[in-house]
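Cross-posting from the chemistry board since nobody answered there.

I work mostly on the small-molecule side, so proteins are not my area. We synthesized adenosine-5'-triphosphate and want a rough idea of how it might sit in this target. Sequence and SMILES are below. Is it possible to get a predicted 3D structure of the two together?
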Amino acid sequence: MSGPRKPPPRIVAIAGGKGGVGKSTIAANLALAIGRLGLRTVIVDADLGAANLHTMFGALHPERTLADFFDQRVADLAPLVTQVAPTVGLVAGTSRPGSANLAGIQRLRLLRAIGHLDTDVAILDVGAGTSFNVVDLVAAADHKLFVMTPSLPSLHNAYALMKACVHRVVRKLSHDETEQGLIDAALGAETKARTIPQLLGVLRPLDAYLADRIVDTLLRFGVGMVANLVGNDADVAALGRMSPLIYDHLLVHAPLVATLRRTGALAGGLRAGAGTLTSHADESYAVFARLASAIAGTDLARLRGEQRAALAQTLPLWVTRTAGEEQTP
Ligand SMILES: Nc1ncnc2c1ncn2[C@@H]1O[C@H](COP(=O)(O)OP(=O)(O)OP(=O)(O)O)[C@@H](O)[C@H]1O
Ligand SMILES: [Mg+2]
């Protein structure tokens, strides 16, 4: 292919680690809210193996899904996009057995295809768990939203996923085997570096340049926490206390960017498309509108870093180095 390529769309991953915390509900409503800002938005159901976003938009049996992409019946995602609102398209996912365990090369193909989508914003519903599918999709996103509810398993799982993403990216920041060895040794059993600041304490005397690259990347990691199903202000305060903890352990800024109460409007139902999308009258409508504006107003060049802004052509370089690797992140 020749000629300059458009920069990848703004990529927003909706993650959480735990199942059933509201990721898909939030992904769908956020996509619609961003679309209402006049931005072209594509929502990708990347919950591989447990795809159900299409049902939220009223489609029980989508004609085309990501299975067509994985089976190479289509070369990119454009033919799979179905319009679900004036400026919002949906790429339906697949629940085919095995799709939850994509080979590294398929994961990279999917990431590249998302980067090549002709849209302003791509929203990824990445599903639960900390599989490589999830970790790589989240780590490559510009905005990483972690959905949490006021329950300990939800907090633990969200933190575990965040940590897995940070470790994955930190390992990929090495330029050669020596640097990779340094990071592995520092993160592994050879030292007592259990947190990123401790890791940097070990690394800096050995390779200050690598330590600086890690700090630079993590300080613009684009993380936000979304509190869902909160009942009262004590819940919000408890979730808010996660931010300093995350910063101390992972050197990542993770502000609470939105708070959603349990509401009948989002409670879902058995009928396809029933009760998961907010209408103007619901209090959560304004929450999604604010979150959409905050995301659209974030300087993408700053998030991507000067080097990537200058290149503005590709996904993060380290993404291309993830194919075929299956170590524990
Ligand atoms: N704020 C809310 N108020 C009321 N119900 C909610 C709220 N958020 C989500 N729900 C309901 O909780 C259920 C789970 O939500 P959802 O499917 O979005 O979670 P998920 O994290 O995507 O789950 P999975 O891990 O299975 O993909 C749904 O029935 C949804 O309608
Ligand atoms: Mg879901």
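Reply from a structural biologist on the board:
Welcome over. Reading the output above for you: The beta strands are 10-15, 41-45, 81-85, 88-91, 121-125, 143-148, 223-230, 256-261. The chain has 13 helices and eight strands. Happy to explain the token format if needed.
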